[in-house]
Specification:
By secondary structure, the chain is mainly β. The protein contains two helices and eight strands; from the N terminus they run αβββββαβββ. Strands 3, 4, 5, 6, 7 and 8 form a six-stranded antiparallel sheet that branches. A two-stranded antiparallel ribbon has the order 1-2. A hairpin with a 5-residue loop joins strand 4 and strand 5. 19% of the residues are buried.
Length: 185
């Protein structure tokens, strides 16, 4: 069926419905490709460069390790996050949205400047997907576990495709308590 549309992997034709029960069932999935639901009015055509359609993204609450920051150590603006892979290497998996002042203050009290030998020494980070703007990042001791809300979209390297939202520091957890990231071979 898809061959007639000229679609080949990794592209597929998305299902469509106007049945709310089907949509609710789709939103319980968090498998690859099921990032959320796009919806529009039934009589509304697609209009290039227009923002008439809406997207509801599926989110998960999860943990990551704060490994670097933007801004000052006393008032971090964003956190650059990591997880260990199955080989014990600390991998970059994404960053937070801009932290509200109260969250930045809370994080600042839990962060320590990194000593020499941080696993990310010499790395550079960009401002976002497709951006060439390099972030001015300060490495921190990779000890603080943070709870975040992330949409389920991942890039080809297994990183979060969009910035995640800070919920809180998890001082009750250590980096060894959080799930490892599955990096592609």
């Amino acid at each position: 069926m898809f061959a007639s549309w000229g679609l080949t992997a990794p592209w597929t034709l998305s299902p469509s419905t106007n049945n709310p029960d089907s949509i609710r069932e789709w939103l319980t999935r968090t498998t690859v490709g099921d990032e959320g639901v796009v919806f529009k009015r039934l009589n509304e055509p697609y209009r290039p460069a227009a923002r008439g359609w809406r997207k509801y993204k599926v989110h998960e609450i999860t943990e990551a390790i704060a490994c670097a920051i933007t801004g000052l150590l006393s008032t971090p603006t964003t956190l650059l996050l990591g997880r260990y892979d199955n080989h014990g290497q600390l991998q970059y998996i994404g960053r937070t949205t801009t932290l509200p002042h109260t969250a930045g203050s809370a994080a600042a009290g839990l962060l320590t400047a990194a000593p020499a030998g941080h696993p990310w020494t010499g790395w550079s980070f960009t401002a976002g997907w497709g951006s060439r703007e390099t972030l001015d990042a300060t490495l921190v001791e990779p000890e603080l576990v943070v709870e975040v809300s992330a949409d389920v979209a991942r890039d080809n390297a297994g990183r979060w495709q969009h910035p995640v939202r800070w919920h809180r520091g998890r001082t009750d957890l250590t980096p060894n308590d959080i799930p490892h990231t599955a990096m592609p071979p």
